[in-house]
Design brief:
Chain lengths: 372, 370
Amino acid sequence: MTRNRRKLDEAVRLMRQRGLDGLVVYSDGTCNILRASYLHYFSEMAPMGPHSAAVVSSGGHVTLLVQPSWDVGRARRNSWIEDLQGVDDFAGAISDTLRRLQIHGRVGLAGGLQMPHPVHAAMSRTVTLEPADELVETMAREKSPEEIARVHRCAAAADAGFDAFHRAARVGVREYEIVAEVEYAMRIAGADDNFILMSSGPHNKAMRAPTDRRVAPGDIVIGEITPVCDGQFIQLCRTVSVGKPDRALVEGYDLLMRAYEASVQQVRSGVAASIIASTIDGVLADAGFAEFCRPPYMRTRGHGFGTGSVAPGALIDADTDQPLLDQQVVVVHPNQYLPATGYLACGETVLVTATGAERLARTETRLYVNEA
Amino acid sequence: MQTLQPTLRLGRDVWDRTAMPIEEFQDRARRLRDAMAKRGLDAMLLYGSGLNGCGHPTYLSNYIVKLPFSALVVLPREGEPALMFEGAARGRAAAQATTWIEDVRPCWNMAGTCLDVLADRGLTAATIGLAGLPRLVPHAEWSTLAAGLARATLVQAEDIVDGQRAIKSPREIAQVRHASSIVEQALASVAREPVPADEARLAALVMREARMRGAEDIRLLIARPGEAEWAFRPAGEVALRQSDTLCVHLGASWERYWSESIHTFVVRAGRLDSAVSEELEKRFRTIVAAATPGTKVSSWVLAALATMSTHEWEILDAYGLGHGIGVTPEESPVLAADSQATIESGMCLVVRAVLTGDRGFVVRGETIII
């Protein structure tokens, strides 16, 4: 018996529903903010790679293949899957496992978009593969209490990260030093990985990786502060004015705050995800900035976050029709380029509930000001 | 050494054109083209994917993936190269600022974009050398590319790029030396501070020090020789107590170039002291001294193994004696007994050694330059 059969039982149920003889949940060892980490979600272990996979039979047997082979002890401690193998020849091992578990015929493949051709070709000699990302997405849609607890832990790390960002965004500090302080604060607060983009200057054009540039008086420092706790992301988008903000910045940020608040008020389960984008765009269009709500200035107004699912999507725009679901984690960010101020960062991550959006961070979204 | 990969390469991102001028990359392209001519290749495709696997396109273009996406350089034997990378069109300007290649194409369809580039250059029926393909290419992308190149002759040519990358230029060596100084100073910094409460805090301190020194990317693993089923693993919320021994593996990159080191520490009187004895240092230096140009890697590995007991070698076996290092944390040559490679001047190698004693074992690793 496994320690936790819930995921296995659900996977088998969904496989049988689709008439699949087996399921392979694959990872190339990468963790991408824009993609679900199917194997991390399913196995409850962050894979190192270059190749790892869980192989599930319709009879309810599951094997976890782990690379590098020396990482199998960590898998044993972290994953609920009991049948574990550290492997060197991954293509050979996965074909052997399919045979051993007597998996023939149609096999669902989750994470297959990242699977290199040689591995795919080796498996295809034994079984008929078909995409099955949505099978794991379906499983991941309902968040467990442990996942919700992780969301809140991650939010606390994001608050710590913003505190560090606010403190570090001062005259003379280099951009990469700001990132170093933010990363350190979030790791101390429990994050095991971080996604941080930022920019400084009098007129920023986008957020990016940090450079040698030193913060100067009159700068606007913007940041996307995103800790990761065991695969779960939370994001804060914040702006700090170094010195007294001019009227254009105050008015511009006030506009973004109005767009943010209007869109968050619309968030609740059952509402189309596009409402986030259309509400933000509406506020900005009313203020005369409609042309800046389209590429190349803007692409998305938010996206979902989750280890096993980025539902309702890695991109939320006016065309994203899927309804928001209860307990989804969604970042709402009316980040915007304005001609008078440059690019400004504004937004945060919320938990979708039946009655509205639950704020996750303690620190508030507003224009912050540091002395010049 | 394989590690968990971050979701974003978030450190200092600078192309110092004095340290790595355009002429450096043009020289790399020239040498690749010379090798292509010898094999009758009309073009080469240099493909990479993910933060650990994007070495080929980075080597030629200086472009680096920040998120775990893919990149590809088409290098015709005659004519201008093209760089394509997975990403939105708005990323084009930022990418152009990091590369000497003028034809830069962000895309979400790598295979289709590659076919467009090859068609633009009249190369869809040419003899094309492959580096990183299909080894790293997602199945769907490869199927599209292979179908689109049905009239071309595709030839494996990764050894050309691997061989060239293995021998570093003086400029590359300077970058690796800088990365090594970041690694060593970051590891040394923890010995100056009171011991943190747990491994995660230790990792945070080391990474902060490396970032403050300009590290572009960082990898850190910890091993506890005292644990029953010990192995290198990510730092956890595991307390650091008096007399604990821990091996810290740190890799960091500086302006694309990596260095790696392993230090073993012991917790004494609230401090982290080095656990590397004179005997281990002497063993390590003996192994390194034997890595001279012209020596077969296989012979050198056997000589290195002879300095260790069977038990000591078993400890190191899973991780190996070492490997090349450069624009990726792990590259050719692999330091293994079955290697066909020869040690050459200009190689940058990660070398590891182990020594057992009364209190378990101690690991020492470092990046060396031949």
